[in-house]
Amino acid sequence: HGTRLAQGLWDELHDSSIDAGLRWTKGRSPRAVNRELIAAGAITDHQTKEALTGVTTFIERERYDRPRELSEETRAQVLADFARWEESLRVDNAKWWPRSLRLWRRR
């Protein structure tokens, strides 16, 4: 099943978004987060929008749909989509102390 992969991707999506200085609203569904990140202007091209949508759709299905076997093809695609999203952020300023790690003081 892809439940662990989905949770790991959700956590990484959260951290990479914060590291890039994007707003993250806790408690939102993957679909709502997808809309917010696209609306924030964090994505500059159509292929990256599709990649982010692929990742958030995968996460949502794994969370709310019946458990099913995860094919290697699906796993590879969602990981490639996530890599495209992260690459598009170009988080150069987060190499040493990413914002997601600095937020622990606020929690």
What is the chain-wise order of helices and strands?
HHHHH
Measured between the Cα atoms of the first and last residue, the distance is: 31 Å
Count every beta strand, where a strand is a DSSP E run of 2 or more residues.
0
The Cα radius of gyration reads 14 Å
Total of DSSP H or I helical runs spanning 4+ residues: 5
Mean pLDDT: 84
User: Helix share of residues?
Assistant: 55-70%
Explain what this protein looks like in three dimensions.
There is one protein chain. The longest helix has 19 residues, at 46-64. This protein has helices at 3-19, 30-39, 46-64, 72-89, 99-102. It is mostly helical and 107 residues long. The protein is globular. The N and C termini lie far apart (31 Å). Residues 91-97 have low confidence and may be disordered. The chain is 64% helix and 0% strand.
List the topology elements.
Blueprint: H1 3-19, H2 30-39, H3 46-64, H4 72-89, H5 99-102
Compact description:
With 107 residues, the protein is mainly alpha-helical. The chain has helices at 3-19, 30-39, 46-64, 72-89, 99-102. It is built from five helices and no strands.
Give me some keywords for this one:
0% strand; 107 residues; globular; mainly alpha; 64% helix; single chain
